[in-house]
């Protein structure tokens, strides 16, 4: 649950504040999981350093993928989705079994610690909330709103549009990488398919959209409500879950494109 | 007022720009002094807006140089130009639509004004000057086009420009609005801000300045007073055909 709150918020940083919708957001999550696990296996470092390395791993991937920001709209989303699939193919490559474990995944049971990893996820979630709050209420956030509205005008008043977008992109990736690293710690045995699963991107996107992007509490509400819904029937009766879930998305897009919090903003309630 | 002053603020030297196979500007040179008001006129497609786009870093010239305040700027991106003192309005106003009028001015004052802290009273002054003080808390998208044009102007002013390019700000305004806009521009110029005014409406331009450059098909056809321009055979031919 906390993991999805963090991921929905991390995705919201990018989509809600710059308009780039990363369909391959899970790539950063997986990169963080692998980076963390590999550091655990090859270096004797405190666990929180390993997790930070997971975040750093995701940021490095994001830097390499930085030129994707030159694409716009659906093209960005498609290219990002493809890049996450490329990462999946690379880590699950049989010939790289010695390095990445190939299709057999990685095992870091020696550091298994459900309580500490739970706390770590809590910290990451709070970090994501803090970052979103910063984006919402700082001068930097104001610049982001301006360049979201009109990049040409924003540039004309002295905002470095490319740099601002890149900062958001890297921070958004860092949140996913930290969450991925903590997830790896929490479950301690994982396969490429489980940390690069596209459902993770889809969940993060739908949770954020459901609550309302561009806000702090929107993605939190979305993740809490929908993940509870998933837990209630998603595992026991997946067929009804898929059906209701699809219906919900369709209704949302048709009638509440700005998320359920827009019900409040329409009535003049200020939503943070 | 409108005469060429001794120290040019902005100098374009044989600037050219092509889009694909189309040459939009073909060796245009011009200079604007620190207190000048230069009118830029010409038929559609003659390169007026492109000239402004090159000066403000939206596009970059293929050849030629642009020097502002002694510094070459033809390779600089837009966001570097605002702190140097160049700003503009757009032919179709481009405000930050979801932000309030006040926020539009604030964000420009903060990022364009060298990061210096600007007091609320500075922003109020600008809001009064562009006559949008009553609308300060409205969203920019709820303004009329005329008001959005003034907001564009106010946002540019908030960055404390030395040179302000105004692209067809008169288009679509009624005669009363045009007179107010002319007074507003005169007020700006009287504070020592140089203006480049791209305009189709020659009567409106006549209220603001007497110094014009006529462009046609990417070349400078004429430079001098608006009155003389109307008697120049080539200018008349370019506008009316012949």
Brief sketch in words of this structure:
Chain A has helices at 2-18, 26-42, 47-64, 73-91, 97-100, 114-137, 139-149, 151-156, 161-187, 192-195, 198-211, 217-234, 238-255, 262-266, and strands spanning 106-107, 189-190.
Can you walk me through this structure?
The complex is a heterodimer of chains A (272) and B (242). Chain A is mostly helical and 272 residues long. Chain A has one domain (2-266): ABC transporter involved in vitamin B12 uptake, BtuC, CATH 1.10.3470. Helix content of chain A is 74%, strand content 1%. Chain A is built from 14 helices and 2 strands; from the N terminus they run αααααβααααβααααα. In chain A, α2 (26-42) packs across α9 (161-187) and α11 (198-211) packs across α12 (217-234). Chain A is globular. Chain A starts with a helix and ends in a 6-residue tail after the last helix. The relative contact order of chain A is 0.19. With 242 residues, chain B is an alpha/beta fold. Chain B has 2 domains: 1-85 and 163-242, P-loop containing nucleotide triphosphate hydrolases (Rossmann fold); 98-160, no CATH class. Helices cover 36% and strands 26% of the residues of chain B. Chain B contains 9 helices and 10 strands. Chain B has helices at 48-55, 78-84, 101-112, 120-129, 145-158, 175-190, 202-208, 226-229, 233-240, and strands spanning 8-19, 22-33, 37-41, 63-68, 71-72, 86-88, 163-167, 194-198, 211-216, 219-225. In chain B, strands 6-7-8-3-9-10 form a 6-stranded mixed beta sheet, sandwiched between helices. A 4-stranded antiparallel beta sheet of chain B has the order 2-1-4-5, covered by helices on one side. In chain B, β9 (211-216) and β10 form a beta hairpin. The longest helix of chain B has 16 residues, at 175-190. Mean pLDDT of chain B is 90; it is low at 1-5. The chains are: A mainly alpha (272), B alpha/beta (242). Chains A and B meet through α7 and α8 of A and α2, α3 and α5 of B.
């Amino acid at each position: 649950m906390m993991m999805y709150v963090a991921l929905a918020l991390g995705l919201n940083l990018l989509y809600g504040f710059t308009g780039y919708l990363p369909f391959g957001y899970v790539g950063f999550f997986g990169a963080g999981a692998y980076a963390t696990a590999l550091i655990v296996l090859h270096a004797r470092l405190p666990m929180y350093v390993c997790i930070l390395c997971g975040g750093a791993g995701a940021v490095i991937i994001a830097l390499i993928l930085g030129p994707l920001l030159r694409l716009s709209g659906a093209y960005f989303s498609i290219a990002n989705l493809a890049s996450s699939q490329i990462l999946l193919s690379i880590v699950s490559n049989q010939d790289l079994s010695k390095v990445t474990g190939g299709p057999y995944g990685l095992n870091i049971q020696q550091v298994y610690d459900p309580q500490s990893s739970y706390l770590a996820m809590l910290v990451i979630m709070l970090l994501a909330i803090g970052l979103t709050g910063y984006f919402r209420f700082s001068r930097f956030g104001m610049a982001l709103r301006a360049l979201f509205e009109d990049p040409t005008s924003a540039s004309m008043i002295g905002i470095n549009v490319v740099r601002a977008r890149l900062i958001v992109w890297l921070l958004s990736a860092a949140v996913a990488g930290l969450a991925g690293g903590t997830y790896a710690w929490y479950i301690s045995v994982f396969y490429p398919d489980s940390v690069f699963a596209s459902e993770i991107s889809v969940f993060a996107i739908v949770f954020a959209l459901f609550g309302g992007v561009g806000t702090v509490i929107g993605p939190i509400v979305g993740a809490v409500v929908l993940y509870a819904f998933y837990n209630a029937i998603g595992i026991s009766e997946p067929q009804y879950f898929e059906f209701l879930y699809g219906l919900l998305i369709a209704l949302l897009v048709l009638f509440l494109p700005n998320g359920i919090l827009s019900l409040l903003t329409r009535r003049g309630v200020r939503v943070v | 007022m409108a005469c060429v002053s001794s120290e040019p603020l902005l100098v374009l030297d044989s600037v050219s720009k092509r889009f694909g196979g189309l040459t939009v500007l073909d060796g245009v040179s011009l200079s604007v002094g620190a207190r000048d008001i230069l009118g830029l006129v010409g038929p559609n497609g003659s390169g007026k807006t492109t000239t402004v786009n090159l000066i403000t870093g939206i596009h970059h010239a293929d050849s030629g140089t642009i020097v502002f305040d002694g510094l070459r700027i033809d390779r600089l991106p837009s966001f570097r130009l605002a702190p140097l003192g160049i700003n503009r309005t757009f032919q179709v106003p481009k405000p930050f639509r979801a932000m309030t009028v006040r926020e539009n001015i604030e964000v420009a004052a903060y990022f364009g004004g060298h990061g210096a802290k600007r007091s609320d009273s500075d922003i109020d002054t600008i809001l009064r000057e562009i006559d949008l003080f009553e609308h300060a808390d409205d969203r920019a998208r709820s303004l009329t086009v005329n008001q959005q044009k003034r907001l564009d102007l106010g946002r540019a002013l908030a960055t404390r420009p030395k040179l302000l390019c105004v692209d067809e700000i008169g288009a679509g305004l009624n005669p009363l609005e045009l007179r107010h806009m002319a007074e507003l521009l005169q007020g700006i110029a009287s504070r020592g801000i140089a203006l480049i005014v791209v305009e189709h409406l020659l009567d409106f331009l006549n209220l603001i300045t007497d110094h014009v450059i006529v462009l046609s098909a990417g070349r400078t056809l004429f430079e001098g007073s608006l009155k003389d321009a109307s008697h120049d055979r080539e200018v008349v031919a370019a506008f009316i055909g012949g």
